[in-house]
Design goal:
The complex is a heterodimer of chains A (408) and B (413). Chain A is an alpha/beta fold and 408 residues long. Chain A has a domain of 158 residues: Rossmann fold, CATH 3.40.50. Chain A is built from 13 helices and 21 strands. In chain A, strands 1, 2, 12, 13, 14, 15, 20 and 21 form an 8-stranded mixed sheet that branches. Chain A has a 4-stranded parallel sheet with strand order 9-8-10-11, sandwiched between helices. Chain A has a 3-stranded antiparallel sheet with strand order 3-7-4. The model of chain B has no long low-confidence stretch (mean pLDDT 86). The chains are: A alpha/beta (408), B alpha/beta (413). The complex binds flavin-adenine dinucleotide and iron/sulfur cluster (SF4) (2 copies).
């Protein structure tokens, strides 16, 4: 079966590349084993977190970093395309690449961010809060959101905090089994008429507050419920992230996938690419588990299989490897150098990934595979946690690969 | 690679408790009494292994749609765990109703012999009321009509002889539905295969694939039928013939449920069992066969991905084939459960959930103003036709209707 481009891995990276290509008229296939890192999404995309000015921070990254390979000018140009890209799908973000803003983690820690989903709380400053008094509301019995941490963090910044909880028979039902009391399951109850009832309950608990903060537990399949809450709640209303799974992250995953399919893309979920056929320095076709002998051929291929977490690269006693095609990886061959004793130090293994040439084409046996582009967290040369650049690398390298394929 | 073909009973050990499966379970979305795939599957299994009293009858609510498995990032065979637990631990005796719904073969044989009477009777208000009241088959349901002449009878009488003209052969597993209720589908299959130069053999012996027996708790009988089918399949494979089907559920059951739920070894023939659309598409794609379509065929069609098709990962073949018809204005429906899940939605106690699950799909179908819906599963067909009034056809029937048979025959000589 022939496609213009076959994409291996359907998380943020694979879907951004796929959408960009189908929008430009390409016939695309995405094969994806399972769910992606978006299920753990914080509400914010990071471009580079090391300083307030992301572009300045990018200038000081190592030469092996994907941004350094792209070059500052290209990074800036690609970054400018991201907000409109998502807006067209109905996903609206705050922020831009000229300056990072601040967001709050589920534990109340302030972190820099590049783009944050509209409904989340964001801050101009790390220390000065825009409110005198806020209400922090939690769902009764929901343990993936700790009001005490949030309240303590806000109070330390001089904000008066009123903590209260929201209850309903729907939530009690979930609480019967504590492991089911997760953000996604709660969001399944916050639909239809219950949204209005919940807004009323929230309004009853905002006494004198400048804003309401709530865990991100609504809007699993779209933004309608969130919009309705915003409309009905009488004071400014913001989400804070919960511990995983991330309801808005899953929404992004579902909306990207749906959009890709509506534009004519083929998405095969729950299937894995198992091998490829290489000829004259090119990848000719791939095979998948479900489709046995069928070969999926394409002019170009994109590898977007994620990092260790998604098994885009795997570590074993024999070292680090790329499991689908046996591509070259950049990794320390000495196992003792993989980890730093101190858990909070930058971990060397985080930078391991597939080796690429200057054009982000995968290398196999030292030579580039000229039609196999590598994007996102399977790439080598960066530490998404230390550099605070996870989604940025994913989105920008994916848009870049799509441009390369279209010869733009 | 991280989705291995996994028959490992201990796969529940791989569960990371991420609850991703629960997000995609259609039953959780409509019925708060259902504990959800994580609870019913890997979590519950831990307890059940300690003591079977932990078995929860709410597991009967599981549709066996396997959408949880498709979504699980850790390759836990959640649906298999739940189905196996139901067969192993459920103390509920299947009802007469379950027996009737499960035995598609017996019912089919009886009914097609007396088709006009049965169709008439099954449609009668008082009969529906009895079925609803006594048998607990929901009165909203219309039983699929039984055809007067079974496909097998027709085939032996009118088509068998002609098959000798072909040197290339395939074996056809028609399944109960094509045999008893919709012989046109099976005839359409023969028509296409003959047009592209392939003769069709029936299996030496064929019984219902057993999907309804499994879901209604008749494991032993399911094993018996599976063994009979596997025996015939092995003979056909021995002659070098692939086994083609026109139902995604029969295909999935024989390829995967035989091994995972009935614990039979089908590994020698598994990859020889395929949907006809996959087989035909691959021939066309490889340039070995040509399909020539009528000039005047014009239809607005949307494809619905049955749950077991999603699990097989083969929707691409059926959709690619339908898209080949020049006059088709093609639409893809969101992949979601239609709610029927085989005999599940026929049961009175499930009717409401079943309709709620399908609601967004029905809405999408109504909004699209279609001539017809294409899908590879017969029970999805009943459900969608009943709930939307839109005609539903198997892609094979659509291809057959759009095919210029003579021109196709010529092109493949
Ligand atoms: C837990 C976690 C949380 C994160 N949170 C954030 C955040 O909040 N903000 C941020 O900016 N960054 C975050 N990151 C960084 C993250 O890596 C990127 O944001 C981005 O989501 C990565 O996307 P990706 O598509 O490259 O990889 P993934 O999301 O990992 O997707 C890879 C996909 O490929 C599939 N796959 C793998 N092998 C195969 C195969 N053989 N065949 C078919 N499919 C295959 C996998 O199943 C998976 O679906 C986080 C990372 C992790 C691990
Ligand atoms: S998706 Fe898989 S790993 Fe996650 S909770 Fe469900 S069974 Fe466990
Ligand atoms: S098989 Fe379907 S109904 Fe059953 S638990 Fe899995 S997703 Fe839910």
């Amino acid at each position: 079966m022939r496609f213009d481009t076959v994409i291996i891995g359907g998380g943020l990276s694979g879907l951004v590349a796929g959408i960009d290509l189908v929008r430009k008229g390409q016939k695309c296939l995405i094969v994806s084993s399972g769910q992606s890192a978006l299920h753990f999404f914080s509400g914010s995309f990071e471009l580079c977190n090391k300083e307030n000015d992301p572009m300045k921070a990018i200038a000081s990254l190592d030469a092996c970093h994907p941004y350094s390979k792209l070059g500052a000018e290209r990074v800036e140009a690609l970054a400018a395309r991201v907000k409109p890209f998502f807006a067209e799908l109905g996903l609206n973000f705050k922020g831009d690449a000229s300056a990072n803003h601040w967001r709050m983690t589920p534990l109340g820690v302030m972190k820099r961010a590049w783009l944050t989903l509209d409904e989340y709380a964001t801050f101009e400053s790390e220390t000065e809060m825009p409110w005198k008094k806020v209400s922090v509301l939690n769902i009764d019995g929901f343990l993936d959101f700790h009001t005490s941490y949030i309240a303590a963090a806000l109070e330390a910044k001089g904000v008066e905090v009123a903590v209260a909880s929201l209850s309903a028979p729907q939530f009690d039902k979930l609480r019967e089994s504590p492991t089911e009391m997760r953000s996604t399951n709660i969001s399944k109850t916050i639909i239809g008429e219950f949204v209005d009832a919940l807004a009323e309950q929230i309004n009853g608990k905002t006494d004198g507050s400048d804003a309401v903060l709530m865990p991100a537990v609504a809007g699993l399949t779209g933004t309608a419920e969130v919009e309705r809450l915003k409309e009905l709640v009488k004071v400014p209303f913001h989400f804070l992230p919960t511990l995983p799974p991330s309801t808005p992250g899953i929404r992004i995953q579902m909306m990207l996938k749906k959009y890709f399919q509506q534009q004519g893309g083929v998405y095969m979920l729950g299937d894995s690419v198992t091998e490829g056929r290489f000829e004259d320095g090119k990848l000719k076709s791939i095979k998948t588990l479900n489709n046995e002998d069928t070969e999926f051929e394409a002019d170009n291929f994109i590898l977007a299989t994620g990092s260790f977490f998604s098994k885009g690269i795997v570590a074993s006693q024999n070292g680090v490897a790329e499991p689908v095609f046996g591509l070259d990886v950049d990794a320390d061959s000495d196992r003792t150098n993989w980890y730093q004793r101190n858990m909070f130090d930058a971990q060397p293994y985080m930078t391991f990934g597939v080796a690429t040439d200057e054009e982000f084409r995968a290398k196999k046996d030292g030579r580039p595979v000229v039609n196999l582009y590598v994007v996102g967290s399977v790439l080598s040369g960066f530490n998404a946690i230390k550099d605070g650049c996870g989604a940025g690398v994913s989105i920008l390298t994916s848009l870049n690969a799509a441009d390369q394929i279209m010869n733009l | 690679m991280n989705k291995e073909q996994n028959t490992n009973a201990e796969s529940f050990e791989q569960c990371l408790k991420c609850t991703v499966c629960t997000v995609y379970c259609p039953m959780v979305a409509v019925n708060p009494d259902y504990p959800g795939p994580k609870q019913a599957g890997p979590d519950g299994e831990r307890y059940r292994l300690k003591n079977p009293v932990f078995y929860d009858d709410a597991l009967d609510l599981c549709l066996n749609c396997k959408r949880c498995e498709v979504a699980c990032p850790s390759n836990v065979k959640i649906g298999d765990i739940i189905q196996s637990a139901r067969l192993k631990y459920s103390s509920k005796k299947p009802k007469l109703r379950d027996f009737i719904l499960a035995n598609t073969d017996i019912m089919g044989t009886m009914a097609s012999t007396m088709a006009p009477v049965v169709n008439f009777t099954l449609g009668l208000k008082p009969v529906k009321a009895v079925m609803d009241g006594v048998l607990a088959v929901d009165h909203h349901r219309t039983f699929p009509k039984y055809a007067g002449q079974r496909f097998e009878t027709w085939f032996k009488r009118y088509a068998l002889k002609k098959q000798e003209e072909y040197t290339k052969k395939v074996s056809y597993f028609h399944g109960c539905y094509a045999n008893y209720n919709n012989p046109k589908l099976a005839k359409d299959f023969v028509k296409i295969m003959n047009a592209i130069g392939y003769g069709v053999n029936l299996l030496e012996k064929e019984k219902c694939c057993g999907v309804a027996l499994i879901s209604n708790g008749f494991k032993n009988q399911a094993i018996k039928q599976a063994n009979l089918n596997l025996g015939s399949i092995r003979k056909a494979v021995g002659r070098g013939e692939p086994i083609l089907t026109t139902s995604s559920t029969c295909t999935f059951t024989m390829r995967d449920e035989y091994a995972h739920i009935l614990e039979l070894d089908n590994s020698d023939v598994r990859s020889s069992i395929a949907l006809a659309t996959k087989f035909i598409f691959e021939l066309v794609d490889a340039g070995k066969v040509k399909l020539v379509f009528k000039d005047d065929y014009r239809k607005r069609i949307a494809y619905h991905t049955p749950c077991h098709m999603e699990k097989l990962g083969w929707a691409i073949y059926s959709t690619s084939l339908v898209k080949m018809i020049p006059g088709v204005d093609f639409n893809m429906l969101d992949s979601q459960c239609c709610g029927i899940a085989g005999t599940y939605g026929f049961k009175k106690e499930h009717y409401e959930d079943s309709q709620k699950i399908g609601e967004s799909l029905f809405r999408q179908i109504r909004d699209l103003n279609l001539d017809m819906v294409a899908t590879d599963c017969e029970t999805c067909k009943w459900q969608i036709e009943m709930s939307t009034g839109v005609q539903v056809e198997n892609p094979i029937s659509i291809i057959a209707d759009a095919l210029d048979v003579e021109a196709t025959q010529k092109a493949n000589r």
